Amino acid sequence: MLPFDADCVPPYMKDYLASLHAKGRRESTIKRYFYDLNDVAAWMRVVKGDDSFFVYERLTTDEVQSYFDFLTNERAYSMRTLKRVLTVAKQMEQFYVERNKLSYNRAKQVQLHQEEITPFETLDFVSDQELAQLKDIITSEEGLTENQQKYRHLLMERNLSIFTLLAQYGLTLQEITSIKMRHINFVHHELAVYSNGQRSRILPLTKADHQLLYSYWENIPSPVRPALYSGDAFFVAFDYQRGTYRWVYSDHAPKPLTEIAVQKMMRLEVERGGLRKGISAQHLRRTCILKQLQAGEAYETVQSWFGFKTPLSLNRFIAYLEQEQLQSVDTKKATTPF
């Protein structure tokens, strides 16, 4: 028996946690493993549609790698945190390898990348044309199934609101899924942004963007609509089978949209729009940061707007802009007649 309730994770994960308890591992350690594994299960449900052992044992090495790429690129986990999560994954994999339920330890093949030391390239950003294409596809029914078209009117403004906060305001996935109703001031057109549970900044919303967010909220059916000024999540998950937004009866509140669900939504919209593979929420945030720097905004202003703790976070963007300027000068020299 575990010293805490772990019923929300699949049985095979719970069995592994129970083995740690049997070995005398501290409760705090087991809880840390529990939270990491619960996150893996949530990712499986979104990406694979199921978190059963049948699906888990059939994950490829590339799919396991993609989970850690998600933690690196979308959640911006530190290398220390990535190594911790990878250790948990390796140990559970080995647990089932030793019981002949897995043929090999896939997590041992995972490569962790320190993005901070890698210079930006053009493909790390999104062009104006790609942004326009993505916005157009989000507001269209092109390529949708008949069932998806039936409920598109309920989701279009939600998805467009998420796109807008990523591309025009540069929020992170974690910040978007952390938005509560009490964080939005519809009267003063302001959004309080919280990162890791603490308020990092207040952003003014344009009139058009304020109207978009308000319209999304107002059009949610009243029985499942997040309550004004409450701790309800602003962005809510949708149930296609029932044709409405999800509700958690035990919490008496709408079901929050998760980071992984937003990632999946973005990937599907990118595919539907015929855009290059790999464009993600992180690409939109990076592009928003780059545009402010290109517009000549002071570094201190950009740092404050995007919630960076130190100006060092802008160094890669500044280095990219300087490289672009050098290339532009070299191109002009090469095309200037003597």
Automatic annotation (TrEMBL):
Domain Tyr recombinase: 121-337
One biological process term in Gene Ontology: DNA integration
Residue span(s) of domain Core-binding (CB): 7-97
PROSITE patterns linked to this entry: CB, TYR_RECOMBINASE
Gene Ontology molecular function terms on file: DNA binding
Listed Gene3D superfamilies: 1.10.150.130, Intergrase catalytic core
Keyword DNA-binding: yes
Alphabetized UniProt keyword annotations: DNA recombination, DNA-binding
Domain of life: Bacteria
Protein name: Integrase
The organism of origin for this protein: Fictibacillus macauensis ZFHKF-1
